[in-house]
Amino acid sequence: MKLPELRIAGLKPSLPIFQGGMAVRLSTHRLAAAVAEAGGVGIIAGTAMTARELAEEIRKARALTKGIIGVNVMYAASAFAELVKAAIGEGIDLVVSGAGFSRDMFTWGRESGTPIVPIVSTARLARTAEKLGAAAVVVEGFEAGGHLGTDESMKKIVPEVAEAVSIPVIAAGGIVDGEDIREAFGLGATGVQMGIRFGASEEGNGNDRLKQAYVDAGADDIILIKSPVGLPGRAIRNAFTEKLAEGRVPAPEHCSKCLKVCSQVFCIREALINAQRGRLDDGIIFSGKYIEKVRDILPVRDIIGRLTSRLAELPAPPPFKRPLVRPATAT
Ligand SMILES: Cc1cc2nc3c(=O)[nH]c(=O)nc-3n(C[C@H](O)[C@H](O)[C@H](O)COP(=O)(O)O)c2cc1C
User: Fold this and answer.
1) Element spanning 223, H or E
2) Lower Cβ count inside 10 Å, N or C end of the chain?
3) Count of CB atoms situated within 10 Å of the CB of 151
4) Residue 73 phi, psi (nearest 5)
């Protein structure tokens, strides 16, 4: 099949594939640059970095590729504005905001000419984002890894959003192989965002023990946890999630106030850093729902090569038909 052309403001990646931002420090310059170099959009996850660290990551990615590099910052982060402005100051190609967005980020985008791409989980929010000036939306369903903004499937939400907006729609959540990508295009998406497939790559910035945990995990190991951010999170069951479920994880002694709102039941930042560093028994291993399809740690070049070869073999999906507007029933 021929891939759709993804255009986000003036940006034209040669492949309509975003690598999802993965904090804390799982998608850093090396992964983002490898994806950008292969023709996709590489995303550095800025959440829980300092502005200086994020700027440094952007410079390192730029030194490795001339491809498209974006940043992802979670709106829930206290340093959201500071990090987004730092990325814009470095001339980042686009900004993705996770788990919410603010009105003023669109002003920062407009003033600097930086495309702003919020992650949304409803058609209503997608429409609001478009009105505020979003250049595209990532539509993330329940199948995604990390914090979840919905309990609905990407397969239900993507067609609703594609119907509701005229900006590009990038589907995310549970997309691992060529068949998944084809299906997303058939639902009205013109791009896809993939998280865990790229997290489990050679260039992914997690410790080898973390990557091995991805490869070893089966469908039964996937659970939902209650994150102190106030959202559910999709993760791999481990000693830490068992302790959490039994209420045996002590509340943090120190708090850096890294989140705008936090229940402080446990420190999610520390748990994610532990996982990234391979201290898995004290860490939260965020993961997409279909981790069982990820069976090997590959270089990004090979992941993208396999995806594009498979897509070339597959027939085009049936054309996306906008759902018929139901006439109001007379009462
Ligand atoms: C380990 C991990 C960390 C993540 N961190 C973030 C993040 O910092 N910001 C964000 O918007 N999404 C985050 N996500 C979501 C991904 O960017 C992506 O949208 C999602 O994982 C897509 O689902 P998939 O993993 O099934 O492909 C994270 C996902 C994982 C697995």
Assistant:
1) strand 222-226
2) C
3) 10
4) -130, 135
At 205, list the tokens: 């910035």
Determine the CATH number of domain 17-205+294-313. Answer: 3.20.20.70
For the chain, the domains span: 17-205+294-313, 217-291
Please give all residues whose beta carbon lies within 6 A of any atom in ligand 1, as ranges.
20-23, 26, 45, 47, 72, 74, 98, 119, 140, 143-146, 172-175, 193-196, 199, 286-288
For CA atoms 88, 75, 195, 175, give the dihedral sign.
negative
pLDDT digits (tens, 9 = 90+) for 76-87: 999 999 999 999
Minimum CA distance residue for ligand 1 atom 17: 20
Q: Are 133 and 110 in contact (CB under 8 A)?
A: yes
Residue with tokens 């994610």: 272
Over residues 47-93, the pLDDT tens digits come to: 999 999 999 999 999 999 999 999 999 999 999 999 999 999 999 99
Sign, CA dihedral 69-75-77-80, equals positive
